[in-house]
Amino acid sequence: MEKEGTETRNQSRLAILELANMISVPMSLNAVVRLNVADAIWQGGSNTPLSAAQIISRVLHSGGDAENLQRILRMLASYGVFEEYLSEGERKYSLTDVGKTLVTDEDGLSYAPYVLQHHQDALMRAWPLVHEAVVDPNKEPFERANGEPAYGYYSKQPEMNELMVKAMSGVSVPFMRAMLEGYDGFQGVERLVDVGGSGGDCLRMILQKTPNVKEGINFDLPEVVAKAPQIPGVTHVGGDMFKSIPQGDAIFMKWVLTTWTDEECKQIMKNCYKSLPEGGKLIACEPVLPEHSDDSHRTRALLEGDIFVMTIYRAKGKHRTEEQFKQLAISVGFPSFRSFHVDHFYTVLEFQK
Ligand SMILES: C[S@@+](CC[C@H](N)C(=O)[O-])C[C@H]1O[C@@H](n2cnc3c(N)ncnc32)[C@H](O)[C@@H]1O
């Protein structure tokens, strides 16, 4: 009994040490992305295990410290990003399925820009202030650290906006492939508006897959659409969703409501309602929180994203449950609600006027 108690205490101390040192994990992940390690190992699909010295010779023109890279790779191997092979004292690394998400695909996309986007200096400055969101939720830690809210700050830094667009594409394109396989709610829609559509990837994919959608309106902040690429059938429109939203047969919105407070969400949804015809749909794809907390990758990714929103965008912006989304929609007049679970991270929420 006594022995068991000691063992439990020891495991608890190890667990708290692991948590206290956890910052090494995302920062090392950021380091391997900055060093382009995944593409160096992948080499067009070979994924041959390489030593740190071999990786360095592929990613740096000269110099580099192989021992330090090995320390980073070894730690990330224990988090399932790399597979480690130990033979006669030499360590080599290939990519696991998790590591492969960082490899640049034929369209130039991966999850790597999302990792970089989350670890830019301005965002990092906000993290030591998370407790301030508890003390006073009227100002998010990002604003406390940088003097203004995140989107206003990005708008003055073109490279931050560019990285945001790239990060969104890297995450959204694989999701859209899954969504368009499992969801047919765009039937009968000819003019579709994407609110907060970033570079227009979601609309491009919807138009390619759904011939009845003839016209796409990609609506985002003026500085974002100014850099968006030409896409056949898509018109980029700059504006502010809190003021008004272009009219369409249906409105699509992905990863937008999460960022805002309940009152701000109501304002956005009210503007959507006004721009829809009778029977028109608002189709929102959002991370939706489960009711119960557990230690699955899904629940952790959703709960961690919730704290990210609280820290960077709005102290009272949040990941919500399906019921919370439903109540927001009812409060602005949408009588009908359906949900579709076509992806692990996002849920498709359909609100009909
Ligand atoms: C998390 S991103 C999602 C981008 C895209 N929907 C996707 O999922 O790939 C949120 C988007 O909302 C846009 N946004 C923020 N404030 C906005 C506003 N007031 N009016 C219109 N768009 C806005 C941002 O520029 C950004 O592109």
UniProtKB/TrEMBL annotation:
Q: Which Pfam families match?
A: Dimerisation, Methyltransf_2
Residue stretches making up the O-methyltransferase C-terminal domain? 131-334
Which GO terms of type biological process are on file? Answer: methylation
Does Methyltransferase appear among the keywords? yes
Q: Where is the O-methyltransferase dimerisation domain?
A: 17-105
Which PROSITE patterns does the annotation name? SAM_OMT_II
An example Gene Ontology molecular-function term: O-methyltransferase activity
The record's annotation in Gene3D superfamilies points to: Vaccinia Virus protein VP39 (3.40.50.150), Winged helix-like DNA-binding domain superfamily/Winged helix DNA-binding domain (1.10.10.10)
Q: Which UniProt keywords apply?
A: Methyltransferase, S-adenosyl-L-methionine, Transferase
Q: Which domain of life is it from?
A: Eukaryota
Stretches assigned to coiled coil: none
Tell me what this protein is called.
Uncharacterized protein
